[in-house]
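Q: You know discrete backbone vocabularies at least as well as I do. I have my own habits and do not want them to colour yours. No explanation is needed for now; the record alone will do.
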Amino acid sequence: MATARDLDAAFAAQPRERFLPEAMRAKAYYDGPLSIGFGQTNSQPRTVRAMLELLDVHPGQRCLDVGSGSGWTTALLATLVGPEGSVLGLERVPTLVADGASNVADAGLPWASVRTAAPGVLGAPDDAPFDRILVSAMASRLPLDLVAQLRPGGVLVVPVAGRMRRVVRGLPPRDDPRDAEVTEHGRYRFVPLVTDPA
């Protein structure tokens, strides 16, 4: 289980300024979202930490990072899972994909990667299942497509209609994505999830 000390170490190892455009680096310690261009933001550090606490990442896990932006959350997840785990970051803006991939590579995390999200596809179903899925964009309804990409017992953290949701997929025989355990954890604002669930 990721402890407060684990999270402190991950944030120390992956300082926010390394993942910001040069013009925004002076604001790295501002506890609010910062623009990374193309209508996208680098999320508020307090929010990122809260999401990672809910996600409860363990060493060796396989994680999916939806809306990886400039790669900061991908790098944080990779630090938490360690080299025995893996992290796949997905981003839809080509320039941010390139920037995020470069930032993650510069962080020395070869078990993490960033690639372009497939048009019209939510998540990475061909790479599933995942132990943990983090979504840094607001869905209008619970994305069951992503729940289906979790292993039984896996966890999804996603903002839905203004509220943070923690979703735990059940164990067989109760592992139907529609029967997942969902809890709410406060109000948040994010850019919209473009490939929203149908």
Observations:
- Residues 94-106 form the longest helix (13 residues).
- The chain has one domain: 41-187.
- Helices lie at 4-13, 45-55, 72-81, 94-106, 144-147.
